[in-house]
Amino acid sequence: MGFLSPLFLLGLLAAAIPVAIHLIKREDPPKLLFGSLRFLKQTSKKLILFQKVQQWLLLLLRSLLICLVVLAFARPLLYQGSLAQLVDAEPESVVILLDTSLSMQFGDRFERAIEQAQDVLDGLSSGDEVAVVTFAAGTQDTRELSSDLDSQRQFIEELEGPGYERVRFYPPLQLADDMLARQAIHDQRRVVLISDFQADGLSDDVQGWRLAPGVAFQGIDVGDERSSNLTLTDVRAPMQVMETTDNYEVLARVRSTGSVFQPRANLTLRMNGEVVGQEAVDLGDRSEAVITFPFELEDSGSYRGELRLSDDDFDVDNRWYFTMNVLPPMRVLVINGAPSSDWFDDEAHWFVLALEGMENSPFAVTTTTPSDLSADMLASSDAVVVLNLDTLPAAFVDDMSDFVRQGGAVWFAPGDRVRADAFSRSFAELSPATLQAPNVLGEAEYQLIADMDRRHPALSGLNVDWTARFQGFWQVTPSDEAEVLMRFDSGAPMVMERSLGDGHTVLLTTSLDLGWSNFPLQGLYVPFVHEMLRYLIQPPQQQGAWQIGDRIVLDESMLDARRVSGEELVLTQSDGQQVRIDSQSPYYTASMPGFVEGPDNRTLAVNIEPAAAQLNRVAVATVNDRILNPETTPRASEQVRSAQLIADLEHPQRLWWWILMVAALMLILEAWIANRTYR
Fold first, then answer.
1. How close are the terminal C-alpha atoms of the chain, in Å?
2. Per-residue model confidence as pLDDT tens digits over 429-473
3. DSSP element (H, E) containing 522
4. CATH homologous superfamily of 330-537
5. What topology does CATH give the domain 85-223+617-635?
6. Cys bridge to 423: 139, 390, 553, 593, which one at CB 3.0-4.6 A?
């Protein structure tokens, strides 16, 4: 038996009231002095005992009457189990989704989320089952459905805290729906989403998707109604620049992302830890502003850049990291095979003019003739350009071959003075093709550039119409290792490339002066020469910054030595934690903002996604309307459902009614006895 209103049982204390009154009003018989007792009637002892019995019975009836009334108001109920089991007669399966995205680091949101999750667990009974899923951009830690509530409570208590990812609501909701469909053992099913309900979480709306029919949804909002925040949403910094550049420039976009507009802040630029610029940010009446940082760097090398906002309550999104390589001038050795005192006819004039005929040229050019060549010239160069020359000393050619294999580059441009057989014998190990014979067209005839590999790094920026006219070129036979980059409209190769060791060689089948074409007079001549030499000399441009969640393919130079030795690659994150990368699977998934240090002073810069710091929110009702299945009947509250279950069980028993009937009969009996009891 149980009682539906057990607090009324405190009324049983009132049963002591008749006893107290009886004891208080009990008096000793008075003593009277009489002169003679012969006129008093003698009373029987049996009559006195009977009257005492009547008084005790009356006292018992009155106390029992109070107890019956109290029991009636306490509403007794006959039930085989406990009352707690009665209230939880409909067990349910619950999946708790706990937001651990970046915005949950704001204030004490995550602590409140933990408290709310514990409250949900406290509201469940031993017959229920619950699962816990933490999520951000995707699901993270998952605890399957279990009736072990204590274990789930411990799991929540041991969560480390939110990370740095943006939030997405649909993946965890779909997982919860699938878990309930596959694993739930109860008909009552519910998904509880605990989050600050960042509006960006619905940006990847899955059209038409809703929870399964019958699955209830409960959203618990732990966000702040008012929040003030400034965010660095975008930074444009050069990834690779030349040392000869006078001024560098970084552009930063700052946006107010909270519900309360914040118009001002300070922005500082640091390079290798030193402050190189500081600007005041004043948004005025705008939601965002672009700040320009001009700065100078003295030496070449790799630099770590950091932009930092101040005067903001949310520091996580106030920093932006990037890396920048400042390269020394590209050293080009030009071997002029046909020098001339007349600059117009000099083979190297137009080529050198294209490299040095501009302010702050990125090239340092050394021009020489075959007779003046030295090994020191080759050692101090990044690329060698051989103009209208068919032979060089064998020892120097061997040095050139080693030079290319170690990462250098050689560009051949044979002209009208080249002998095919001599060129092929001297440069057979280097040239991408074998020269056959020159093809010089008539005065009114010419060839145009008809085809080019527009995806090649040296040519991708030159995707325009070429108007240069070529009247002479060499017919060639490309080697098996060669790749044709450009062709004339006759189909004959114009530019070919060959890889040799770590370096490259290039063959241009025509001249780079005015001997066989008007190319040096065309607007594309300078860009063509510059882009080809940049490709041959400079390392591939490396990305300056990544974002949280990016899968970074590590640089081959980090891995080559370790692939031979079988060692693991070790990266050190900004918090000092080391991450070991298998050299056979050279990928690193960015998980923390800051600089990630690799071997040989290589650095990866990682930033948060700007969308992750947007603090504008969406109403819980909006999420509910989007995902709740219209076939799901609105579920009554636990109190309403419990009251209905109790009413269904209590109505056929009506114990309180029978108790009141007995109490009424006892009240009549008490009145009848009271009227016949001596007072």
1. 40
2. 999 999 999 999 988 899 999 999 989 999 988 888 888 999 999
3. none
4. Class I glutamine amidotransferase (GATase) domain (3.40.50.880)
5. Rossmann fold (3.40.50)
6. 390
Question: How is the chain split into domains, by residue range?
Answer: 2-26+42-77+643-675, 85-223+617-635, 330-537, 546-610
pTM attached to this predicted model: 0.71
Counting DSSP H helices and E strands in the chain, the numbers are: 15, 32
**pLDDT tens-digit readout, 58-84:** 777 777 878 877 777 766 766 555 444
Pairwise CA distance, residues 495 & 486, whole Å:
5
Burial profile 217-238: b = 16 or more Cβ within 10 angstroms, e = fewer: bebbbbbbeebbbbbbbebebb
- Tens of pLDDT along 313-327? 788 889 999 998 888
Q: What is the pLDDT of residue 581?
A: 82
**Phi-psi label, residue 259: left if phi above 0, alpha if psi -120 to 50, beta otherwise:** alpha
- Region 271-298: mean pLDDT is 87
Type of residue numbered 621: A
Cα 79 to Cα 3: distance, rounded to the nearest angstrom: 10
85-223+617-635 and 330-537 have identical folds:
yes
CA angle (391 as vertex; 389, 396 as ends), nearest 5: 115
DSSP string, 143-204: EEEES-HHHHHHHHHT-----S----SHHHHHHHHHHHHHH--SSEEEEEEEE--BGGGGTT
Phi and psi at 673, nearest 5°, equal -70, -40
d(CA 213, CA 178): 12
Please give the Cα distance from 237 to 276 (Å, whole number).
Answer: 14
